[in-house]
Design a protein that fits this description.
Number of domains: 3
Distance between the termini: 42 Å
CATH superfamily of the largest domain: Response regulator
CATH architecture of the largest domain: 3-Layer(aba) Sandwich
Structural class: alpha/beta
Largest sheet: 7 strands, mixed
Order of helices and strands: HHHHEHEHEHEEHEHEEHEHEHEHE
Strand content: 15-25%
Number of strands: 12
CATH class of the largest domain: Alpha Beta
Number of helices: 13
Shape: elongated
Length: about 350
Amino acid sequence: MRPTTKDLAKAAGVSLATVDRVLNNRPGVRKETVASVIGAIERIGFVRNQSAANLARGRSYRFEFLLPETGDDFMAALIDRIEESRLALLSDSIEVAFHCTLPNDPHSAAALLGRVSAERVDGVAIMAPESPQLRDATSRLIGRGVQVVQFLSGQPDLRPLDFVGVDNNSAGATAGRLLGRFLGPRAGKILVVSETMNALDSVERRLGFDRVLTSDFPALTPLPSLETFGDPVRTETVVRTSYANHPDIIGAYILGSEARLPLEAIRDASDPAGQVIIAHERTRYTEEMLRNRVLDAVIAQNPGHLVRSAIRLLKARCDRRPPLASQEQIRIEILIEDNLDVL
């Protein structure tokens, strides 16, 4: 049978109350006593039943997803999965909420994080572009005792802070490989569109994309990244201008998570039938564009897995136990017209 706290107290030569203080990291226990309990844990193979401990203490968890205040189809898919998890986890005393309040302005975003406290929430999953202001605000948030997961976009100086998302360099390289293979021997220029290049995920995708095209497909020339900032008028203008200035564009890579605006602008400015177009994230719109053969492939990450992984990581950190790393690896999925109904 699995050793109990009574077995642990006996093996360590201490009282049950002392064992409880050590397991819950409470003050008032000498270092020698803590070391004795830890040694006994290793000797007898004690594994704490966290669920039972939480039930006995009436423990609940409060987690929030802090999301950008702007977003489109992919943001809606994430919110649907957050709400799904919220309902499913209520019986486990886990409260899950989301707030689409993080602005693009780094100073305003940092100020918002400054108002998050451990009294209000146990952990947050933050989806925001990188900036020194946000990095410092996140560090201060951790210092106030709030667990943090970087959600889809990470702060490199804070790693190995928990990150949920695909390897974006590999995702960009995958896009480059698919585009190069689909275009075959053709030579020409490639349009590259992003919402913002201030986000680490966009930078890493661009680096991976360029690396593959430069090394393996020298006949293809990727153009400088167009930043749309999620603005429809700007998107239409910069895309139309690019096609007017580069009549030899034969392909496009939409490296942001929201593909609808760039794709609509591409369709207005050119004939997609003569191009190879790769985008990111599975949404109702990108599915429709795959079926209509406007898109050739979509590189996706499962939004349900993303949300569940963030919650599991936050809970593991609150429980002071290591997460199961293999469970939290987010796969890069490649969607084409023919496998939409099976993935």
